[in-house]
Amino acid sequence: MRVALLYNLAENAPQPKSNAPHDVLYELDHPGNVAAYKAALEAHGHVVFPMEGDARLAQRLKDLAIDICFNTCEGFRGDSREAQAPALLEMLGYPYTGSKVLALALTLDKAMTKRVLAYHDLPTPAFQEFTSADEPLDPRLAAKFPLFAKPNSEGTGMGIDEQSILHDERELRERVAYLLNAYQEPVLVEQYIEGNDATIGMIGNWPDLHIFPISMIDHSVYDETGVHVYGSLLKVDRADAYQYHCPALLPEALAEALRRLAVAAMRVTGTLDFARVDFRMDQHANNKPYILEINSLPGITPISDLTLMAQADGWTHADLVYSVFEAALKRLGLQLDLPAMIEQKEYVVVR
Whole-model pTM? Predict the structure, then answer.
């Protein structure tokens, strides 16, 4: 097939303001990762055309007779930036991998995602969205300190550090004011769930989903690095120090609950082809799991969380990339030529 490989490189992003936070471009990709995606697709005989998914995308695609686009575009600006390239592809009539426009716009907005989860009775921490630092604090949330603050529409741990944990209203006002100014978007403040993090990654579409082994942060990394919150500092700046357990050593009943909640989150948000769902387990309530967020365009770089989970399942990075591609081909009803490597993967039917 003739595949357009779409990406957004940090080096091509608009220049950040001089006072922008250090992690402002951390969502964007790098040439080495793009080369790895390209190699994974070319290994199966496809012709790959890498290109920046920016405002000139339509012109680049015009004369290439593209069969499908492999989309990894995070977007450069706007509150629905992950949905921009897919919206353009739909206008032009090109099929693409991954979630559609509405799902990507929804799940980039953490507060709106939590409203959808709550509507479907899926557990997520109590929250409030702030567009100014002096908004009245919801009395129901005021009774739940400590709280946790983060930008409403960012990933890769951006805007998250040890000052994200809020112990009183003074800290809340200061942190919200900082985040509003630094990231120029609303701030999500939610109940801080004290306990272990867990992450679940999935490939495929309901009801044929492959669920990777559950990953859980090894808390010894906090003591060894002196960084006690899993934000951009550990995700990117000190990624070599990251430690985790995969498969996580969890009771099977809890692991099954996490898997079912992850699948439910994927379904109610309309996420397609691949996903990663992040949880906190409340150590004060028998490890009750809470959904923090679902990533409908999860990172699939060679060191992303989804890649680490796939590797724990015996997959290579190339297996992961190509399985996303195959999931999209199957969903779209396009010609399939499953290589033996992928046919051997065990798909778990979740009902």
Answer: 0.90
Residue 48 is inside which H or E element, if any?
Answer: strand 47-52
* Same structural domain, 146 and 251: no
Same domain, 244 and 318: yes
Alpha-carbon span 191 to 206, nearest angstrom: 31
Helix (H) or strand (E) holding 251: none
Which residues, in sequence order, are bridge partners of residue 278? 199, 293
- The pLDDT, as a whole number, for residue 297 is 97
Lookup: tokens for 270:
């309309």
Q: Compute CA distances 201 → 151, 198, 226, whole Å.
A: 23, 10, 28
Q: How many domains does the chain have?
A: 3
Listed residues 136, 163, 191: the one ending a domain = 191
DSSP letter at 233?
Answer: I
Is 285 strand, coil or helix?
coil
For residue 198, the model assigns a pLDDT of 95
Beta bridge partners of 50: 5
For 324, the domain range is 195-349
Residues 94 and 163 in one domain: no
